[in-house]
Amino acid sequence: MLRAGRRGAAVALIGALLFVAPAARADDVRGGQKAVIRTLALPEAWRTSTGAGVTVAVLDSGVDPRHRDLAGSVREGRDFTAGANPPGTPPSRLHGTYMASLIAGHGHGPGRKRGIIGVAPGADVLSVRVILEDEEPGFRAFNSAERFENVVARGIRYAVDEGADVINMSISKELATREERAAIRYAISKGVVLVAAAGNDGDRRIDGEFAPYSYPAAFPGVVSVGATDRRLRRASFSNWNSSVLVAAPGVDIMGAGPGDEYWVGRGTSQATALVSGVAALIKAKYPDMSPPLVARALAAGATDRPPGGYDTATGFGVVNAARALTEASRLAGHTETAAGAQAQDPARPVAAGRAGPVKVVQRDERRVTVYAAIAGGAAAGSLLALTVIFVLVRRVRRAHISQEA
């Protein structure tokens, strides 16, 4: 997970936590994806939708458009980090390529049976660079220069204006800003589905009761994603709190890297990318479906639901693409839309519903009020909505945030 920005705007790319290593060969990769493909019920889902016609914006460290499993599917958008690296420094683009492949990788070779197959192989990717990875020479400058403070907010608005249907944000931070809240409100008002990582600080506890809230995941209207382990239980690193809507596999996840490489890692980043892919499948089949209804379909179609239907560890359960599409078909007749007015007042929740360790300094001299909301989903046609608001007011002088991607 990478963190970027300053004065309360530090954002982390939640990538391959603890372990990242190149995979052996391209023909080994698809076998390594079997567990994820089975858990998400992708073969069944692909009979209904492959994500064709949908654009998923990947707000990240950049995507390699020449990777054989992504070639022809990636449009390179604006680089909001421009000027942070010394002139002529190429971006590493590891984390962004990794996430994009999980969303829209289409494989390669005969029948495209080799390499990474993403959740929505028919979707297109819009790469929006809003972060530097820790090994890039401009990383420290990027995280201290005021001109990069609101790159994520700017990236969201840019992606919306460029026609994104879904925005993947495998990024996290502890404090919200007014600009980010406004950008998310703008995206929802335009019908764009926002998916973000719940965070990799699951071993930290606030008052012994829950893990820290992370933004943009905890903003009202954003689909907050936790990670599960091989047994489909909350992964030990995954944040647990009432912002978590759903979960997805996040341990030993195969993905693509720049230069036709393959990687395996763990984190809520990977889980988030998988859920963004499912959202793309839904938007391809039902392009006019509002963000709240997409979130509802994701939650209502989840499997491995916790006792009682919801908990702070995995939300409403593990996302299942086939079941989510079935729920979306039931909801498609509804006229409910994403009302931007719901997000205009941050106190009103919307009811709808690392590749390497990084350390960044976050500063904020102001009092910040942040609101975390969890919007609920429906099961079997019911319109059950669960809304939990957590209000945190704190004055932050200097906070050090450590992240492992």
Automatic annotation (TrEMBL):
Keywords, in A-Z order: Hydrolase, Membrane, Protease, Serine protease, Signal, Transmembrane, Transmembrane helix
Segments for region (Disordered): 333-358
Cleavable signal peptide: 1-26
Parts forming coiled coils: none
SUPFAM superfamilies found in the cross-reference section: Subtilisin-like
Active site: D60, H95, S269
Keyword Zinc-finger attached: no
Pfam families (UniProt xref): Peptidase_S8
Chain ranges passing through the membrane: 370-393
Residue span, Peptidase S8/S53 domain: 51-317
PROSITE patterns: SUBTILASE, SUBTILASE_ASP
Domain of life of the source: Bacteria
Low complexity bias: start-end ranges: 346-358
Protein family per UniProt: Belongs to the peptidase S8 family.
Protein name, as recorded: S8 family serine peptidase
Native source species: Nonomuraea composti
